[in-house]
Design goal:
The protein has about 260 residues and is an alpha/beta fold. It has two domains: about 160 residues, Rossmann fold (3-Layer(aba) Sandwich), CATH 3.40.50.300; about 50 residues, no CATH class. The protein contains eight helices and nine strands. The strands form two sheets. The chain has a six-stranded mixed beta sheet, sandwiched between helices. Helix 4 packs parallel to helix 5. It is globular and about 55 Å long. The N and C termini lie far apart (about 50 Å). The chain binds adenosine-5'-triphosphate (ATP). Adenosine-5'-triphosphate binds next to helix 1. The site of adenosine-5'-triphosphate (ATP) has 11 residues, from helix 1. InterPro entries: AAA+_ATPase, ABC_transporter-like_ATP-bd, ABC_transporter-like_CS, Metal_Ion_Import_ABC, P-loop_NTPase. Belongs to the ABC transporter superfamily. Keywords: ATP-binding, Nucleotide-binding, Transport.
């Protein structure tokens, strides 16, 4: 699938947004989890969603994915102006597999992208398709590994490859950096940058790792039930809202 590129993507809203959230609200069991959540996600942009535990980051993803109901609007506009429902690729928060599980990356992938029965040998054409998907994340060599034997970083790459098939308009990753070591983190961030440049898709991810935000995020959304601050990483990380949410004491830091 080729993704049509927006002409006016970049700072500010020029009317070429991929995804617009306007006054989004989510209630679960009578409790207000999110309210008044508004921000835009542009084509080719990496947006990091940050906030304390329980801020509503995963709930926001679930609302965008259509898994839970919401109030307000989630609007998607393609480069040509059409408003079809976007294709969204999703990488969930660190799923774990039994270390002894005999299922290979090929079996797992083939079952997810085709209806070929897993108990039959995988046809060559399907194997090549899976290899092509894994190549997008430089993971072709993982094809015959057992899922249970993958490292945290390798598993993230396999799940990322799966989320990219078919190529989505928007890629959502729920805490992709948790459980990944420093090298794996660097590789994953480089890969996300390469993916957004190659395919011009928008990436929305949640993270608790603030040290890397300036290196990879175009924009940061600080969430705690509602949006407290949106802006470039440095602006959000030095904002009074950030300090208050994460209980950073200005006096102790001599500022
Ligand atoms: N199915 C549910 N039923 C009841 N409450 C829920 C449900 N899902 C989420 N919540 C509540 O909604 C709030 C937001 O949870 P959510 O998982 O979206 O936060 P989060 O920002 O992703 O947290 P974390 O950083 O810890 O992963 C929490 O108070 C949580 O208990």
């Amino acid at each position: 699938m080729s993704v049509q590129k927006h002409q006016n993507a970049g700072e500010g809203c020029t009317g070429a947004c991929c995804l617009r959230l306007d006054k989004l609200g989510v209630d679960i069991g009578g409790d207000s989890i999110l309210h008044d959540v508004s921000f835009h996600l542009h084509c080719g942009e990496i947006v990091a969603l940050i906030g304390p535990n329980g801020a509503g980051k995963s709930s926001l993803f679930r609302a965008i994915l259509g898994q839970i109901g919401h109030t307000g609007s989630i609007d998607f506009q393609q480069a040509g102006g059409s408003r079809t429902r976007p294709l969204i690729g999703y990488v969930p928060q660190s799923p774990s597999f039994d270390r002894g599980d005999p299922v290979s990356v090929l079996d797992f992938f083939a079952a997810a992208i085709s209806d070929w029965p897993v108990f039959l040998p995988t046809p060559r054409r399907l194997r090549e398709r899976v290899r092509g998907c894994l190549e997008r994340v430089h993971g072709a060599s993982l094809i015959d590994k057992r899922l249970g034997a993958l490292s945290g970083g390798e598993l993230q790459r396999v799940l990322l490859a799966l989320a990219l098939e078919p190529l989505p308009h928007i890629l959502i990753l729920d805490e992709p950096l948790s459980g990944v070591d420093i090298d794996g983190e660097r590789q994953l961030l480089d890969m996300l940058d390469e993916i957004r440049r190659s395919y011009d898709l928008s990436i929305l991810l949640s993270t608790h790792d603030f040290a890397t935000l300036e290196q990879f995020a175009d924009k940061v959304v600080l969430l705690k039930s509602s949006v407290l601050r949106v802006g470039p990483p440095r602006e959000v990380l030095t904002s009074p809202e950030f300090r208050e949410v994460f209980h950073l004491d200005l006096r102790k830091e001599g500022m």
